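Re: weekly structure request thread

Next one in the queue (122 aa):
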Amino acid sequence: MSTASERDLAAGVEAAVRAVPGVSTVFQTGGSASKAVEAGGRLLGIRDRDAPLVRVEDTADGTRVEVAIGVRASAAATAHRVRAAIEGVLSRERRPAAGVRITVVHIDEHPPAAAVQRSARR
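Done, posted below.
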């Protein structure tokens, strides 16, 4: 992220994504090399430990957003809700969406404890 406004937008997008039902976590975006550089920067104090995990980039076409999520519900339905949440944030900020990339990197294998308890009572 190159500007403070992109960083603020990324933080807002990350908060909106975390609030989507079915999202269990948000992961660092990017390939293995960029994740290693990011982790090294955080350890050395060069990169803020609280920096958003969402990648936002302003381009000539509009704003591009990239997010990696873990889900505990239907991956497709959750991804659609995440896209809607991201587009809502971009719309409120009056930024046209040039692209939204959502990667589901983890699907929880076990249902939440409350669901297990409910099914055990039946």
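Confidence is low (pLDDT under 50) at residues 115-122. The first strand starts at residue 23 and ends at 27.
Next request, please.
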